Structure formats: C-alpha cells, structure tokens
Amino acid sequence: MKLVYQLPRNSLAWLLVAQAAAIAPHIPRLPVWLVGAWLFVVAWRVQVFRGVWAFPGAPVKALLVIVCGASLLFGYGRFFGLEPMVALLLAAFVLKLLEMHRRRDALVVIYLGFFTCSTQLLFSTTMPAAVYALLCVVLLTAALIGLNQSEGHKQPLRSVQLAAKLVLQCLPMMVLLFLVLPRLGALWSVPMQQSAASTGVSDSMSPGDITRLARSGGLAFRVAFDGAVPPPSQRYWRGLVFSRFDGRRWSQARIAGFRDGPVLATPDNPQPWQRLVEVSGSSRTYEVIMEPSHQPWLFALATPRDYSTGISLTRDFRLVYREPVGKRLRYRVTSYPDYRLEAQPLPDWRLRQELQLPDDFNPRARRQAQEWYRDAGSTEAYVERLLDYYNSDFTYTLEPPPLGRDSVDEFLWGTKRGFCEHFAGSFVFMLRAAGVPARVVVGYLGGELNPLEGYLQVRQYDAHAWAEVWLRGRGWVRVDPTGAVAPERIEADLRSALSEQESQLVSGVLALDRYRAIAWLNRLRLQWDALNYRWHRRVLGYDSTMQAGLLRQLLGEVSPLRVALLVIGVGGAILGLIALRVLLKGRKPRPSPATRQYQRFVRKLSRAGLARAPGEPPRDFARRVATRRPDLEQAVLAITDLYERISYAGQAALVPELRRSVARFTATRNLFR
Amino acid sequence: MAVKYFQRRFWRWVRKRLPAQSPQTLDRFKLFIFPSAAGAGFLVVTLLLWLVGTNYENNLVIGLAFLLTSLFVVSILHTFGNLSGVTLRALDSVPAFVGEDAEVTLLVSAEGGRQYENILLGWPDGSTVAANLLDSRETRCKLFVPTRERGWMDPGRLLVETYYPLGLMRCWTWLDLDIRVLVYPRPIYGGKVPPAEAVADDGSLAADHGSEDFNGLKAYRPGESLRHIAWKHYARGQGLHTKDFTALVDQRLWLDWEFFDRFDKEGRLSRLCYWVLEISKTQNEYGLRLPGVEIRPGKGLEHKQQVLKALALFAPPARAARQVAA
Q1: Which residues neighbour A353 within 8 Å (Cβ) at sequence distance 6 or greater?
Q2: 3-state secondary structure at position A519
Q3: Cβ <8 Å between B112 and A587
Q4: CB B107 to CB A579 under 8 A?
C-alpha cells in the first residue's frame, strides 16, 4: 500500500473552519443540494482523517464532478454569469476536500478559499461584510500556518493568534497600497449578478405597488448637496414617467411612440428635443450614491441639466444609466428647480400619447370629468376642483381596500381610501378624461437628513407617485394630489401622514428608525448610517479621481517618482516597525525558581572543575559527575532528582527543599576532614 | 559544463562565507531567503483577485488583493525571523558501520524570548528533522546520515531551512558544523568464530572442529554450515537443527590481519570487524594485530570501541600496502 500523507490535524481543523466561514455567506444564494454535498464531503473527509473511511476512488470522484457540474448547468441554465460561476467555484472548493492527499492539495483548497472570500464581496460590500471577509482571511491564514507547523502540533489557538497578528500587521501596508496604487477601470466586461430581485420602483404601477414598497425600510439612495439642502416639499426625486394606462396598470410610453428623434440624449450625442426645456434661476448640484436596484433608471430633481458620464437623458427628461444598476453607483447631477418643459403647444402625436385612455373602463369617471371640467371653465380651476374633492373625505392609508375592474370609479366614489398611487392614478385619469394632457410620475419624495454628515437618506418607504399636468404656456407642472389629502406627507414624511397604528407598518422589523422617540437609540441609528455613508463615499467610492486629489494634497505635484518615493518611504517605515517587532530579541524569560537553583548548583560544580556540557541532560551530567567524584554521588543525584521532580512532575512544593540542598552542597574537597 | 563551473564557484563562495564552526548562530549574513513555489502560487492568486476587483470595480476585492500582497511581504520578515537568532551546535555523533545511518545529535537553542517553529534540519541524502523552540530555549535533535566508506566521515553541509509561518517564503542556509562521524568497516561474515587455528596466544594450536565439545542443538539459521546440521533429527521430522559445539580453548584471542590473506584490504577489515562484534558478545578477551597496529587483548565496551576505531582508521603502512598489492 502506498504511504499516505496525513494532513496535520491542526491544519485540517482550521481548513474546515475557514471553509465553513468562507461558504456561509453564500448559502442563501446556493442551491440546497450543494450545501448538502458540502456537509457530506466534510463528513467524509473527517472520516478519512480518523481512518474510518478511505479516499474515494477515481470513478467516484469523476461521478461527483460530473453530477455537480451537470446539476449546476441544469439549475442555472448557463455557466456564464456571476452566480453560476461562483457556484462552480464553490463546488470545486468543496469537492477538492476529497482529493486532499498531499500538502499541495491543501494549499489549493486554501487558495480557492481566498477566491471564495472575494466573491462574497461581489454580492455585498457593506461594512459588516468587509469585516467578515477579514475574519475569513484570518481563518484561512490560520489554516496556512497549520500547514506549515510540525505534525502533532497541539496548540490550535496559537495558529489563529499568529494569523490574527499577521493580518493586523498587514493592514497599514494594505491601506497604503489601496490609497496609492493606480486604479485602472474595468479591463474587460464581466458577468454581473442577475438573479437578484430588482428593488425600488418598477417600470409599471398598479394599485398597491407603492404601498408594498412603503413597508420596506431598505435604503434607496443617499444624496449630498453641495449647498443647502432643499426643504422636504422640494425633494421630489423623479424616476419614471408613466403615460400609458391599460385600465389597471400605468406604464411608460412606448419608445417608438416618440417621433422627434432618438429617445436618449447624451452629452456626446445631443438631441433636438432637448431644446424643449428652458431653465432659469439658481441650480442645485448634488451627489447621489445609489444602492443597487438592478434597474437602469436614476433619480434626480427636476429638471436635470448636467450629469456624470454613463448617464443619458430620456425624452421625458429623466435620467437613465447605461445598464441596470447592479452595484452601488455614485453620480453627480445639477438640477434647475425653475424650468419650463414643453411649453409650446404639443403636437398631435404628443397629445395622443398624453391623453390616451382605454375605452371601456371607468364610465362614471369619464362622465364626471367632462361635467366638472365644463363647470370649472379653465384647466387650473378644474385641477382645483379635483383637489378639493380629494380634500373632502378621502383617507390616506397604507391599507387601502382592494379595487375591482373599474378601479378609478370604485376609488373615487366608493372606497375613498388609498395611497399615493391611487390618488395620482385617479387624478391623471380624471384630467385625461377631461382632455387635459397629464401623466403619472413615480420616484421618491423626501428623505431624512442626517445631521452628523449633512446628507439625505432616501428609503424605499419614501417611494411616491404624483402627477404632471400640461398647462398651456407653462408646460408640464407638478401637481401632487396626495398633498390635498395628507399635506404632512409632503411637508414632513410618510410616518407623520399616517395614523400611529399604520406608521408601525412602515419599514422592516429590524429598522431602528421605528424607535425614533428614544433619543439615544435614534442618535445611534444616525451615527451608524453616517458611518455607512462615509464607508460608501470614502472606501467603496474611492476611485482614480479621489486618488488624484489625495496625492495632490500629499505630494503637491503628482509624478511617478514622487509616488514611488511615497510608497518606498511609508512602506519602508511600516516594514521597519514590523521588523523591529518580529526580529528584536524578545525579553529573555525569567527562569523558574527551580531552574535558578539548579543553575547555582551547576556553577558550584563548575568551580570545582566539573563543567556541564552544553545541552547535557541533568541526569547524564549527574552520572558523569558521580563517576569522576564518587564522594559527591549521593548529593548530586539527590539534587538532580529534586530538580527533575519539580520541573517535569510539577511538584512545586519541593522547591524549598531544593534550595536548602543546593545551599548545603559543596563541591570543593574538604582537605581537613 | 558552465553550470558545473558556476556550481563550483557558488560552493566556494559559500565555504568562504560560512566557514566550518560549531556552534553557529544564524544571522542575516548567513541566511538566504526567496519565495517558495507556494509563494509563487500565492502571488498568482493575488493577481487574479486584483483582476477580479479591477474588472468589477469593487474596492473591497482590490483591498483584499492588497491585503494578500502585504501578507506576502510581511511573511518575508516572519520567515526570516524564524531562523535568525537560532544557535546550532554539534553535540556528538554515534559511530556507524558502513551502509548504516550514522546518528548525529545537534543542539538547537535560542537566546531571548522569541519562539521558533518547524525549523527543518537535514543532510540532502539523510533524514529531515523538525525542531521547535516553543516553550523551551533549547532542544536536542537526532539526525541520521547515510555512510559510504569507513574512516572519518564529513556529512557535508547541513541544510537548515524553514517555511514557517505561511509557507510562502523559504529561508535557508547550509551550515558546516565541523561534524566528524566515525564509520567502522561493514561487517562481513568471516566464518564461524573463532577458527580454532586462529587463537592461542602461546602459539599452541587448538584442535579442529572434531575435538570441540558437543554442547547441544539449536535451531538452524540460514547461512550456517551444512556440516553441522543434525541430519538424524531432520530425518525424524523434527526440523533443521544445528549441532552446537563449544570450543573450550584459550580465552584470549588475537584477531590477525593475516587470517584473511585471500581478501583485499577492505575485505580483511570487514571480516575482522565481524569477528570483533561476535567475540565481544562473549566474555572472551581479544586483541588486534594489524600491520603497524597492535592492541593488547582486553574486553568491555571501551576496548571494543578502541578496536573498531583502529579498524575504521586503518591505513596500511607502505610495506604492508605493497604486500597486499602483491
């Protein structure tokens, strides 16, 4: 039989722990069978270590690889894509355990562990995720240390302590490299996360959609204004414009429906329709850090003029990104609150678009709209009439009753209880039915100011729907029918607009902002969010622009030579400090009392010409002395015996006796005896 | 050719830089350090992580790649620190017979309170031993090194290396600890001991085998003379036995160079060596006569070692060498 290399116990133990730690954050994303396979393989490997089972033979291994590969392919339908690739990596990481014969195989497993640890960061970049990844690195390092310790190492904690020490020593160097080494943007395109559910407002709206969003406390985006933060009632974050209604759902106008050029305009590729907006007055510049929504649309105040690269302006004057926002995105926008949009008379095709209604829905609303419009006389007065109607006896609620086929009729004259999408939808319906061009706009309203860092955080429960009405000579004007029912929603926030009982429904169970009343808890919540904000801005958002700024600040003028000198200087200093710690001789440990006594005894013998050889065991020394000086035999053996009993058998109580014996001991010949 | 030349130059340089000495304390003048194969693999992993981080524009993955880079750099210091300051001292060596492994004891020690782990010690063709200095300041290591010819053997430069803590770096040195190992001749069966005609200090020859006293039967061992097999017992189906004879002759034997004149020098020494080992198991006294060497009969461990050492170091004087050649 072939001699099998047995991985040291310490190493295997840390390896399994590190693997578990690296896999754990992936478990919710993985197919269940892969988790099962992992546990099975771990059990098998432990049995191999205990000598109960053997390693699987080549056919079994081939079968496992084929079964895992095929299951992944069938499960995901493809291999190219972030999730299937990570699952494949994890399958390799797991199955390699059964092939861990040699030291090199264990090394491969540990290196795969570093990869797994990094993929976890592709899915989550929060601060806790980063700390967790650091922990994984410590454990993987401990496994690496275990692999390089002697077999039969019995102090597993030493490995992890040393690993932690090493990783801590590496941190300053890592920060230096992170800050200074040049950033190249993406070198080639890579598959992004795909299966993740898109969050935030979606590309259509039917009754209940925004109500559902309002119950979520998730963060949508953060905004930092260059100047003063506008008041809550000015914080209408436009996201989507809905011009099509099918009786139940509001959705975007068909792209092909626009007849004056391509629907997307970029700074490089301006479109003639961009002339339709005229801005005046002051502007607001702000930076948005958007959480991944897996949707392409961005949020901005009306009406955006300048924006970061990669962003396009659409025909309905909102911003979209070049791809779905799969990871946190930072962009800058300058908006002009005073604007006139499409103020010229609308061409026929535009009128058709903005007046479209399905024929056989909501007959009562159609009738009533024409009647009221006639009574009002002007569009402005008609709008006032509608808002008055909402103000009369409607209720703003998170729990609106369900609506049937003619949803507008039922809402306006039946239930009279609704959330913003009910108000905006019915409002636009009534306007269109009366021949006034109008559309629904969806986005977020408001945002909570973090007083510590001065930025706004906009959460999912800030999602909102309002209307834009086209007025002759003024163009599109924002009208928010919700304001007629619940002005607090616009002036303050959602919670103040709802009854106390309903406001409990807002946001998830874990969201700390349910406890705003408790001052210290609220302060803690704001501090935590401010910390997250800084993390996102300074760490996750650190890019070549920020790097250039930092280097200019540090070096004055940025040149490769100066950067190299900075790296060498600071890096050298860091390494020098570590070298001092590692290489300087540690303080000599104070010998134990028994050793001190024994050393005294050895000195006495040495003065009598009986030196102990270096490294000579006490017993050998005693025997050598006894053969040369039989007169000392009894005393020497007694002292050696005492010393050994104290040192090796732990009989510390014998120390005084040893001290007395050594004190009495004399090696010089007594000439006068 | 050129490779050999540079190898020679290199070892000459090593000899000059690291002269033979014991004890030796390892310091930066004596140590070499270079990334190991595992370290090269680690760098590849780091580079791949950096590519992932760059392509996904994920600062945390880039940071992780930089953390691993730092780990690589910092491990240079730690691996170096795991040898620097260690003192090696050759304690003693146990003589061996040609073909056996000689045992050498080293003392690995360190001043100060630093801890050392998994220091690998060994000769290129011998066994490798791991030394740890965790909670003690010194440890004794027994190493084995194969022997090829008798006499004083220099086991060559001891390879002291370590990969601890991460295995990414290899720190090593070749030390000459001035070790000499005494190698005795390889014992070769030289007939039944002692040949009757071989003994007798007073010159009278003992009788041949026939006059030895029959002492009993013992189990046959392969290689024993067929003449002494108790065929009668074998015929009765009691297995192979040998008739054991005891030569009750003079207790003082002289082992003489001339006994094996049909062999060459090494052959004679090997057979004499075998006899020394055999006789020293009994209580008999024995002496040794080699050209130019005479050891009076004696017994005991020290005497045996003295005789074996004489065999190990024997170099025939010019006249004897000529005789052997003739």
Answers
A1: A243, A253, A257
A2: helix
A3: yes
A4: no
Tell me if residue B53 falls in helix, strand or coil: helix
B128 shares contact with chain A (CB less than 8 Å): no
The single-letter code of the amino acid at B299 is K
Half-sphere exposure of A359 (CA within 13 A, CB side): 0
Question: What amino acid occupies position A618?
Answer: P
Closest Cα in chain B, distance from residue A411 (Å): 47
Contact A173 B109 (CB under 8 A): no
The pLDDT of residue A49 is 85
Q: What is the pLDDT of residues A87-135, one digit of tens each?
A: 888 998 888 888 888 888 899 999 999 999 999 998 888 899 999 999 9
Catalytic residues of A: 420, 464, 480
**Pick from B194, B150, B212, B185: nearest CA to B297:** B194
**Cα–chain-centroid distance for residue A354?**
41
What part of B 179-238 touches A (C-beta under 8 Å)? none
Task: Give just the sign of the alpha carbon dihedral A88, A93, A94, A99.
Answer: positive
In chain A, residues with a C-beta closer than 8 Å to the C-beta of B70 are: 170-171, 173-174, 177
Query: Alpha-carbon torsion B225, B226, B227, B231, what sign?
Result: positive
Picking from A542, A578, A588, the nearest residue to B59 by CB comes out as: A542
Tell me the DSSP string of A308-343.
-TTEEEETTS-EEESS---S-EEEEEEE-SEEEES-
Please answer yes or no on whether A150 and B51 come within 8 Å at the CB atom: no
8 A C-beta contact, residue A420 and residue A485: no
Structure tokens at A10: 């310490």
Question: Is the Cβ–Cβ distance between B161 and B170 less than 8 Å?
Answer: yes
SS3 call for B159 = strand
ipTM of the complex: 0.77
Using CA atoms, how far apart are residues B304 and B283, in angstroms rounded to an integer? 12
Domain layout of chain A by residue ranges: 9-180, 204-358+436-515, 544-583, 593-664
> Which tokens hold the place of A16?
């399994």
The pTM score is: 0.74
Contacts of B116 in chain A (CB under 8 A): none
Q: Indicate the pairing of strand B241-246 with strand A284-290.
A: unpaired
List the single residue in B71, B77, B164 with the smallest CB-CB distance to A579.
B77
| Residue B8, min C-alpha distance to chain A (Å) | 32
Which tokens hold the place of A543?
A: 């890019």
> Is A577 a residue whose pLDDT tops 80?
yes
Q: Which residue has the tokens 């935030």?
A: A200
A173 contact residues in B (CB cutoff 8 A)? 66, 69-70, 73-74
Is B59–A178 a contact, with Cβ atoms under 8 angstroms apart?
Answer: yes
What tokens does B85 get? Answer: 């300051």
Closest-CA distance, B283 to chain A, in angstroms, reads 24
H-state helical runs in A324-459: 348-355, 363-376, 379-393, 407-410, 420-433
Whether A213 and A201 have beta carbons less than 8 Å apart is answered as yes
- A188 to chain B: closest CA residue: B55
Strand arrangement of the beta sheet that strand B101-110 belongs to:
B24-25, B86-94, B101-110, B138-146
What tokens does A217 get?
């406390």
Angle between helices A593-607 and A655-664 (to 10 degrees): 10
The contacts of residue A604 (CB under 8 Å, 6+ apart) are A662, A665, A666, A667
DSSP type of residue A202 = -
Which residues from chain A sit within 8 angstroms of residue B109, using beta carbons? 614-615
* Inter-chain CB proximity B114 and A148 less than 8 Å: no
| pLDDT tens by residue, B209-253 | 444 455 566 666 666 666 667 777 777 767 777 766 554 445 577
* Residue B143, min C-alpha distance to chain A (Å): 16
Comparing C-alpha atoms, which of B120, B115, B118, B93 is closest to residue B104?
Answer: B93
Cβ <8 Å between B164 and A149:
yes
